[in-house]
Please model this.
Amino acid sequence: MRNKLQEALKLSKADYTEIRIEERESARISYRGKDLENANAVIDKGGVVRCLIRKHGWGVATFNNLDDLKNKVEQAYQCALVARSDSPIALGPIDVLEENIQAVMEHDFRDVSMSAKKALVENYNNILLDSSPKIIDTSAVYVDSFSQIYFANSEGTYIGEERPSVTIATTAIARDGDNVQQSHESFAGPFGFEFVLGREEMARTAARRAVELLNAKSVIGGQYPVVVDPMLAGVFIHEAFGHLSESDFVYENPKAREMMVLGRRFGKDFLNVYDDGTIPGQRGTHRFDDEGTPTRHNDLIKDGILVGRLHSRETAAKMGEIVTGNARAINYRFPPIVRMTNTAIDNGTTLFEDMIKDIKLGIYACDAYGGETMLENFSFSSGHAYMIRDGKIAEMVKDVILSGNLFSTLMNIDAIGNDFRWLTVGGGCGKGEQVPLPVGMGAPHIRIQNVVIGGN
Amino acid sequence: MDLMKELLRKAEQVEIINLQNETTTVTFEANQLKSCRVAETKGTSVRVVRDGRMGFAASSDERAVTKLASNVLESANYGDQLTFNFPAAQPAAQVRTFDRKIVDLSISRLVEIGREVLDLILPVEPEASVNINLKRSVQSASLKNQTGLDIQFKSSPLAFELEIDRIVGDDVLIIFDIVGTTEWDEDYLGFARQLVKKLKMARILTSMRSGNMPVLFSPSGSLALGLPVKEGLNGKNVYKGTSPMRGKIGEKLFDEKLTMIDDGTLHGRPGSAPYDDEGVPHQRNLLVDKGVLKGFFYDLRTAARFGVTSTGNATRSLFTQPEPASSNFMIQPGNTPLKDMIASIREGILVEGLLGLGQGNIISGAFSNPLALAFKIENGQIVGRVKDLSIAGNVYDLLKNVEAVSQETEWVYASIHAPYILLPQMNVVAKE
Model:
């Protein structure tokens, strides 16, 4: 493979060329209610060539047929030729390197039979179905994927990397008359089959919570102090702040550029937010990004001040900043763009009990169920929540939607917990067509004052 | 390995489809050329019936044939117990779907065409931000099954996805359309000229109060009425129980001025082909005849669930199993010239486009959308553009009483053919 790639690269007339090949095998089993919907395996092999002509721009060619790389390089070059750039495009410098990275799985899922995988999902699905007569529908999905990536560029870098991934996701839907509620629990990570074994508690929790939500009252809308659990905090920082740190977005959007000025205060002194592609065992972790740049710890907010952002080689050069190792592509059908890896609110010092004990009336919001952001405005639904009354967690409430402005919300964080954890959930990040990209998210509990909560 | 032979040793029925596609996409964003990309995909998709159960697998690695065979046989262990048969060869219509002139367009020529579209629009609308996705595909497929069916097909669709945004203060004008063809047309800029006409009309502003009034839907506006019905006519939605038309074949559900067909045999359309993606010949399917529901559209599997024959509406891609989809969905023209329809309106609106079209629970027939582009009609004349209006309703109520359907029709979203539809009365809400 290496010779094949390097020979094709030699023929390129572009200023910079890279080729990324991916060979992927994946299995998917899904149950919906009592029915087995799918039990299939997929073989997908292909590649992408990117050519850069500095005075023009980028050209991209993707393909399944690996036998004609010369022609693909030429096509990418032709595509680059039609672009026009106002000023020559530069790339932030990185070292030339050669690496081979192998996956470590305790139990390689490629050795597990389809029938064993099916039995696993069936077991979790049955737990969902059997947990309560009020559960009227379920979803249980298992996905595994093993990719062998080969990357080579015209600077001489060559990287081989094995990427395993496994996911188990369960959803329970409960009904009582017209009242329908759902709850969801999942586990995903760059591991082997061992990661999805013994997850009965995951299914029991999803089912139990769906039923509990049936009895929850809709929250009364208003302004509240809110304690947010690590799950919701992690999703919040990723969606409401993380995307604004992606330099390709910032560069093209004048409003975003105005907002994201390095040195600007974003939160109190104890707020620290970072993106780190090196955290062992996290879904966004790789030794190198998809341009061959080593990943690293990137501080985004330090002591409350905006100190950094995330880059590809192109955005780093454009903005006169250093490369950060955040150029990622979801698969071989796409060129890399600026993406997060593992994004987190750093650990603080407050005990959870101390966070809630002074709250006379507030909300403890957990889990995230989708949300929307438009520049600095956001809106998130929490999966489930509880009232906080007189310093104690009280009754469960539903339809809790947190919305607001990123800046005032971050400034209103007045306590950061000491119980940081990385999330282990499935799903992924969406940007343009490249969805769902595996990412890591982490946070401790955080307390935010004056949050606008919309009820149903 | 001869995949067919190998699989027939273990399975009663085998279907092998080889798909190949090369798509060149030129993207303009905010009036600038943003990128140019070529995507080639190639692979094999297989279905088997083994011991009465269906298996499916796919691969884009032409060397991994052994694995593909074992994957598809394994998946049959968990497959549906279904009784339908892959079709034997049947005669099919000759359909023109391939034009060398489209295939031979160079990358720089495609870019030039994109610029020609911009050069038509920007002088008329200098504040517009235009996004164009110009896609030229060369597709070929070969389908074989155990009956001896062996068909080949190739297609050369050229498509424009066009969005024009003109945002001036809080005045938001958005026009979106998809135009497609598989035959080169010397007047390839015709659609852009039509759009420019609409933009010119939109210059004159006027205002409107809320009220009940006649609403004239242009072909692009009529998507608000047609899309929910198209979804409801899809056999898979009927099977799922979400289509409001389930169990109503033979009933008069709409005004008798409405006739709707699905026809995959029209020349030069991206949705057309001699056969569907399972090898069932495309045909003209009469779905609604003078308001009476005649039937739904199916693929083999959904047809089997209802005990009927496939209407030839199977669509698939490399990694997905076939599903029913409309090929070309056509609301037939009516008897009234457009000019007479406009002349008949004392006070009403012409709806050209809706914001958020197709979002929400449209399968129920319900829609509620702000209007992206609409004009006021007063005493039989279009007098100007009106803003900040919304309309809502349920198509299953609204289409029971149609005032008129135009003789004129247009292609919208590349595979829907619609006339102007005049509803006698709708509640139009103006933002105060």
Q: What stands out?
A: Chain A is about 20% helix and 40% strand.
